[in-house]
Amino acid sequence: MGQNIAVVGAGLMGSAIVTRLVERGHAVHVFDIDAARIVSLAARGAKPASSIAEASRDSNFIIRSLNHADTVRKAVLVEHGIASAATPDKLVIDMSSIDPAATVAIATRLLNEPGMRWVDCPLSGGVPSVLAGKLIIMAGGDESDFERAHVVMKDLAANYTLMGSLGPGANHQACQSTVLCAGIPGGCGSC
């Protein structure tokens, strides 16, 4: 049975996530600051949203795929951000690649103020892995939240593992990216 899912951030990885989830039968509400990306994904079956809050309001799961802690913080805490649509029954699945300390700080604020749940699920794998449902996800969060997110992660990941409480998933991904990119002049381009 399909889920109502918001995706905030529709760059390369976010667009692939939206595409895969729509193909797997989920109702996917998408928001990005680039309206052309929203239009493109709507043509593939996604539901366009005019704000982060609108996408989040109609969704049980909110996936964020953003590249910087400041962008993540704003997506959560701005006036029409995720926190403005927060209810305890919603779960943020943070697939962003950001500093583990920032992940914990933002998640803790969201948990403490509106009481919204959070699992950090930074991804390992590129666009082809997303589209094939073969990502490797080392997650951090409460075990019950991790299990709840599985209904979405089963369509995105071949390996979905709980590494501990909030932060270890982001920490593991940061370490893995450092090791993988170390031998590539200029980095790998995805981290």
What can you see in these coordinates?
With 191 residues, the protein is of the alpha/beta class. It has one domain: Rossmann fold, CATH 3.40.50. Helix content is 41%, strand content 21%. The protein is built from eight helices and nine strands. Strands 1, 2, 3, 4, 5, 6, 7, 8 and 9 form a nine-stranded mixed beta sheet that branches. Helix 4 (69-77) packs parallel to helix 5 (100-112). It is globular, with a radius of gyration of 15 Å. The model is unreliable at 169-191 (pLDDT under 50).
Summarize the structure.
With 191 residues, this protein is of the alpha/beta class. It is built from eight helices and nine strands. The protein has one domain: NAD(P)-binding Rossmann-like Domain (Rossmann fold), CATH 3.40.50.720.
What tags apply to this protein structure?
191 residues; Rossmann fold; 8 helices; nine-stranded mixed sheet; disordered C terminus; single chain; 41% helix; 9 strands; alpha/beta
CATH topology: Rossmann fold
Q: What string, H for helix and E for strand, traces the elements in order?
A: EHEHEHEHEHEEHEHEH
SSE-based structural type: alpha/beta
User: Tally the helices: what do you get?
Assistant: 8
Blueprint (SSEs and pairs):
Layout: E1 4-8, H1 12-23, E2 27-31, H2 35-42, E3 47-48, H3 52-57, E4 61-64, H4 69-77, E5 91-94, H5 100-112, E6 117-120, E7 123-124, H6 127-132, E8 135-141, H7 143-153, E9 157-164, H8 168-181
Parallel strand pairs: 1-2, 1-4, 2-3, 4-5, 5-6, 8-9
Antiparallel strand pairs: 6-8, 7-8
Helix pairs in contact: 4-5
